[in-house]
């Protein structure tokens, strides 16, 4: 089971074990990661699961789709590493992935 490292807005790190096949959003919510609200439950309609993916992991993730890109326009403080965690499925290859939560979501 892959371990995902979430870094909360205050710098606190939370390593969570995720089930392969669930979304990063589900892993965060189930483990009480602060700043991932996920108001829509993972249907890519709210952008409250916005996070920054550590750049070294970017190439291992699926390409961003148009719907996710459109929803990111509603998120605060986006940058080149912004993704919606509901759109990233955890795989064994993501063991050790680092995900940072924006300060705007504290």
Automatic annotation (TrEMBL):
CDD domains: fer2 (cd00207). Keywords: 2Fe-2S, Iron, Iron-sulfur, Metal-binding. Its cofactor is [2Fe-2S] cluster. Coiled coil: none annotated. PANTHER family: FERREDOXIN-2, MITOCHONDRIAL, FERREDOXIN/ADRENODOXIN. GO terms for molecular function: 2 iron, 2 sulfur cluster binding; electron transfer activity; metal ion binding. Gene3D superfamilies: 3.10.20.30. One of its GO terms (biological process) is P450-containing electron transport chain. The keyword Iron-sulfur applies. The keyword Iron applies. The lineage of its organism: Bacteria, Pseudomonadati, Pseudomonadota, Betaproteobacteria, Burkholderiales. Belongs to the adrenodoxin/putidaredoxin family. This is 2Fe-2S ferredoxin-type domain-containing protein. Pfam families: Fer2. Residues 2-105 form the 2Fe-2S ferredoxin-type domain.
């Amino acid at each position: 089971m892959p371990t995902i490292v979430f870094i909360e807005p205050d710098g606190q790190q939370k390593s969570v074990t995720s089930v392969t096949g669930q979304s990063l959003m589900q892993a965060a919510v189930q483990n009480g990661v602060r700043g991932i609200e996920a108001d829509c439950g993972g249907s890519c309609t709210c952008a409250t699961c916005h996070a920054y993916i550590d750049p070294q992991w970017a190439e291992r993730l699926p390409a961003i789709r148009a719907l996710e890109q459109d929803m990111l326009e509603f998120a605060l403080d986006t940058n080149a590493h912004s993704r919606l965690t509901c759109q990233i499925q955890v795989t064994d290859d993501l063991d050790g992935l680092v995900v940072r939560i924006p300060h705007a979501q504290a």
